[in-house]
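Intended use. Records like the one below are meant for learning the mapping from a protein sequence to its folded structure. Do not use them to infer anything beyond what is encoded.
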Amino acid sequence: MDIRSIANSAIVSVNPNEIVSVLKSTGYTIGAGARQIPTYATAVTGPAQVQALDADDIAQLSGLNIQGVIRAIYLKGVLSGVIRPDGTGGDLVMRNNGTETWLVVRVLEGWSTWTKAAIVLQSTS
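Structure written out for the chain above:
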């Protein structure tokens, strides 16, 4: 049973899904001055549900000293924050036709078919 799809079908009448592009972190290369330059896989596009954080999410993030515009994203598939043993940074989520870049800073719920993650706005164009 796909519980996420059942819940999503009820939620979209209040908060429609939006199409986002996800760039999975693949690690980094070394640039000038021994500076790490993040690398990403080719973007994958699909529907996502972006919402405000609830009280439990805020409590999970409170000790991380994360500042800025923060949202929760529900997405079919897997999102990752920093995974130090793999040498990968957080995945990127592109919203609003690619004009906003959001960084995955914490996976709040990770399941085999979907992920709920905290994302922080990085830039707008």
